[in-house]
């Protein structure tokens, strides 16, 4: 729609994120990924991760995009658990031939970016009365699916490496 700026373009958001990935303990009122540690990247870190990875998400051809059909919170929690299972072995993973170790190492950042896109979709759904909200929501859902595709792609590599290392049992599925 003329005059609207998709939220993933520079200048569309006013918040700035920290360069590091800080993990905050969520309070009960916050929407979060729940688990033993209550892990959830703060919104500023989510946005920062989103901005760093948006070009990777936009690089997918439209035919490669996988629509999100899973419980996002559970998928993110499982992806984080899978990453934590393999993280101690990352130096070894970097030595393996034909392995995209960088995509595996990016998983926490991909999760944070995905949570940011979900947050933006929710914001736009609550703002549905604004005339440009529908086109912005469509753009946000497209970006959500692009980040989901980025997560699935990286996680498939993690699962492949985990099986090779004999850690397949410690890596939960992210798709329902």
Keywords for this entry:
disordered N terminus, single chain, 176 residues, mainly alpha
Detailed description of the structure:
This protein has 176 residues and is mainly α. It has one domain (43-170). 53% of the residues lie in helices and 0% in strands. The chain is built from 6 helices and no strands. It has helices spanning 43-58, 72-86, 90-95, 101-105, 107-126, 133-164. The protein is elongated and about 55 Å long.
- Reading the helices and strands in chain order gives HHHHHH
Overall mean pLDDT stands at 79
Domain count, please report it.
Answer: 1
Low-confidence stretches: 1-38
Proportion of residues in helical segments: 40-55%
Number of helical stretches of at least 4 residues: 6
How many strands, which pairing sense, and closed or not: the largest β-sheet?
Answer: none
Number of strands: 0
- Quaternary class: single chain
Q: What is the CA-atom radius of gyration, in angstroms?
A: 17 Å
> Helix- and strand-based class?
mainly alpha
Strand content: under 5%
So what's the overall shape?
Answer: elongated
User: Termini separation (Å)?
Assistant: 35 Å
């Amino acid at each position: 729609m003329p005059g609207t700026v998709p939220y993933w373009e520079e200048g569309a958001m006013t918040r700035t994120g920290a360069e590091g990935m800080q993990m905050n303990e969520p309070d009960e009122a916050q929407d979060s990924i729940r688990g033993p540690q209550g892990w959830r990247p703060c919104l500023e870190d989510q946005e920062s991760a989103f901005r760093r990875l948006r070009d990777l998400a936009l690089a997918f051809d439209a035919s490669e995009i996988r629509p999100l059909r899973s419980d996002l919170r559970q998928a993110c929690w499982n992806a984080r658990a899978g990453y934590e299972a393999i993280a101690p072995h990352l130096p070894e993973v970097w030595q393996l031939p034909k392995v995209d170790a960088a995509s595996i190492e990016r998983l926490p950042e991909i999760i944070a970016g995905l949570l940011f896109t979900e947050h933006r979709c929710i914001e736009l759904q609550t703002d549905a009365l604004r005339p440009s909200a529908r086109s912005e929501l469509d753009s946000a859902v497209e970006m959500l699916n692009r980040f989901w595709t980025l997560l699935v792609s990286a996680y498939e590599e993690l699962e492949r490496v985990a099986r090779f290392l004999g850690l397949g049992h410690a890596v939960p599925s992210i798709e329902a």
